[in-house]
Structure formats: C-alpha cells, structure tokens
Amino acid sequence: MINFLKVGQIINTHGIRGEVKVYPLTDDVKRFSSLKKVFIKKDEEYIPIEVQGVKYIKNLVILKLSGIEDMNEAMRYKNVFLYVDRENAVELSEDTYFIADLIGIEVIEEDGRKLGNIVSVFSTGSNDVYEIKQENGKTFLIPAIKEVVKNVDIENKKMIVKLLEGLL
C-alpha cells in the first residue's frame, strides 16, 4: 500500500509573502484546514513541510508553508505535487477508497473472468467511474456503483464486478 497520498499541486505563487496556490486533488477542499504538514517528493524521498496557514479562493487553496518566505522562493515550487502521509489522511467511510489504492487493482467478473486493471478514476458528480485497461490495451469504463462493484479487496489488489448489459 502506498504510504503517501497526493492531495494537491502547487500551480502558482500568491502574493509576495511566499504563499502558494494549490489545485486540490481531493473531493473535499476543506480537508486542507486540518493539515499540520504536507510532503513534497524530491527524487524518491518525501520531505515534510509545516503548514503555517490555509485560505481558500474559489476552488483553490492558498497555503503558507514553512521556509517559503517570498514570491521568488515560492516560484521554485510551481507544479510540485503535495502529499500527506497515510497516518494523517482523513478517515474514509465504508466502501470509500483512496484513488491511489484503486490504481492498478485487478478487476475480475463474478464468474472469474479477468477484465483488466484500473488505470484511472473519474469523478462525475453522481458517482465515480473506473477506467479499466484490458490486456489487449483497449480500455472501457464502469460506474462505481453497488450494482456493478460487488467487492473491493485493497490488500490483495482485487475488485469483483458484475457488468451490466452493454458495459463491455
């Protein structure tokens, strides 16, 4: 299981005091309010940075991060992804999963037929949609609804589904 979860991407600076604009990669932007620290990935190492302040403008998050004191310093972080460690991630409700845990999971039909692996997850508003890549390279979409997704085993990286007529 992945120990760090991607929660946002720094897309620009904000003001002259080193704040950064973050595009959130989470379904609830207000989760940033409870963050005490975030991580950036440099090479293969995750480096912690203390969160000193959080504001919201439209659908973006404005963060004040420790050690970034001016606009020039903040510019160095443009396009960098922000992560949280799994221990400090929000608790998910039942039948809810982190996208990072779903990517790569094997999708199997109830009769045992292997359909492929999840390569992407799309949020549509009413429900998520999983993009499945087959061995032949073709992809198809399935809705993340109880009528289709029968069981998810994150630990063993398997999902059992019952395809509705016309999905494949």
Automatic annotation (TrEMBL):
Localization in the cell: Cytoplasm
Domain RimM N-terminal residues, every copy: 7-87
Domain of life of the native organism: Bacteria
A Pfam family per the record: PRC_RimM
Biological process terms in GO annotation: ribosomal small subunit biogenesis; rRNA processing
Annotated InterPro entries: PRC_barrel-like_sf, PRC_RimM, RimM, RimM_N, RimM_N_sf, Transl_B-barrel_sf
GO molecular function per UniProt: ribosome binding
Domain Ribosome maturation factor RimM PRC barrel: 101-167
The keyword Cytoplasm appears for this protein: yes
Entry keyword annotation includes Cell cycle: no
GO cellular component, one term: cytoplasm
Description of its domains: The PRC barrel domain binds ribosomal protein uS19.
Complexes and interactors: Binds ribosomal protein uS19.
Protein name as it appears in the record: Ribosome maturation factor RimM
Organism: Fervidicella metallireducens AeB
